[in-house]
Amino acid sequence: MLGERMKILRNERKVPQKELAELMGVKLRAYQFYESGKNEPKIAGLIALANFYNVTIDYLVGRTDTCE
Fold first, then answer.
1. Which end of the chain is more exposed for a tag (fewer CB within 10 A), N or C?
2. Cα torsion 62, 44, 50, 67: sign
3. Residue 53 near residue 13, CB atoms below 8 Å
4. What digits encode the pLDDT tens for the residues 14-50?
5. DSSP-derived secondary structure letter, 56
6. Model's pTM, two decimal places?
7. Are the C-beta atoms of 17 and 35 separated by less than 8 Å?
8. Which residues of 16-42 are buried (b: 16+ CB within 10 A; e: fewer)?
9. What is the distance between the alpha carbons of residues 13 and 42, in angstroms, rounded to a whole number?
10. DSSP state at residue 65
């Protein structure tokens, strides 16, 4: 669910993967692994994404369908 939500949010806002990788402090390939579900980010990366998209971590990981 996390990778799917990351991809949806990124595409909705038309943000390149490279920009988000830099935001999270990881290499582009690592970010691509997150979106594909092959790997999961550390909590600091989740916090950075939640802040960037103005959503909750629970939304990112699929615990709720409510963004706020």
1. C
2. positive
3. yes
4. 999 999 999 999 999 999 999 999 999 999 999 999 9
5. -
6. 0.85
7. yes
8. ebeebbeebebeeeebbbbbeeeeebe
9. 23
10. S
